[in-house]
């Protein structure tokens, strides 16, 4: 958020709302992970009563979205103990090598080293020059097809370093449903 668009905390219908005024035509309502924070962007000169009416009309939707956020794997990951994180690492490190072994001959690549880390902002990473692949242990909280998607994604980087057209064509050829799998991680 830009400095001149500072959000202010207001209370509407029992909700704490982060309200920012912007040069926009329509009001926007978002429920933000990891804690279900409510953010509203409103046109500069929209009366507060219109904003309050909008929030009041959206109360049920807001509650459903907040519930979905706090029941999500991302929220669970933020609250996890060291023991839970250790369990995730055990699960992921047991599942990834067989996936890599299955996909390497299909893709014609070879990962030289597999590493597992609890990461907040990425599902995986690849160093094409060395063949090192790092997988996020939080993937233990998601359906198995998500882990397989990340493995294929990172192996694909051994063929194409960036995320351009060639990368997408490779992903399409190896895993046609990769976009659906990726959507489950968002």
Tell me what the structure shows.
With 186 residues, this protein is an alpha/beta fold. The strands form two sheets. It has a four-stranded mixed sheet. It has a three-stranded mixed sheet with strand order 5-7-6, with helices on one face. α4 crosses α5. It is elongated and about 60 Å long.
Descriptive keywords:
186 residues, alpha/beta, Zincin-like, three-stranded mixed sheet, 7 helices
Q: Are there runs of 5+ residues with pLDDT below 50, and where?
A: none
Strand content: 15-25%
Strand order of the largest sheet: 1-2-4-3
> Average pLDDT, to the nearest integer?
93
SSE topology sketch:
Blueprint: E1 8-12, E2 15-22, E3 28-32, E4 37-43, H1 48-57, H2 59-70, H3 73-79, H4 82-107, E5 113-117, E6 124-127, E7 132-136, H5 144-156, H6 165-174, H7 178-183
Parallel strand pairs: 2-4, 5-7
Antiparallel strand pairs: 1-2, 3-4, 6-7
Helix pairs in contact: 4-5
């Amino acid at each position: 958020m830009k400095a001149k668009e500072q959000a202010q905390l207001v209370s509407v219908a029992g909700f704490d709302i982060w309200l920012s005024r912007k040069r926009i035509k329509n009001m926007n309502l978002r429920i933000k992970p990891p804690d279900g924070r409510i953010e509203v962007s409103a046109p500069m000169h929209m009366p507060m009563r219109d904003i309050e009416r909008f929030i009041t009309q959206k109360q049920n939707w807001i509650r459903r979205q907040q519930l979905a956020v706090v029941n999500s794997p991302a929220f669970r990951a933020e609250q996890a103990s060291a023991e839970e994180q250790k369990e995730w690492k055990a699960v992921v490190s047991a599942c990834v090598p067989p996936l890599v072994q299955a996909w390497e001959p299909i893709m014609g690549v070879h990962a030289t080293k597999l590493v597992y880390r609890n990461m907040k902002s990425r599902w995986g990473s690849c160093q094409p020059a060395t063949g090192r692949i790092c997988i996020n242990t939080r993937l233990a909280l998601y359906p198995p097809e998500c882990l397989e998607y990340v493995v294929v994604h990172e192996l694909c980087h051994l063929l194409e370093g960036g995320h351009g057209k060639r990368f997408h064509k490779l992903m399409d050829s190896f895993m046609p449903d990769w976009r659906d799998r990726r959507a489950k991680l968002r």
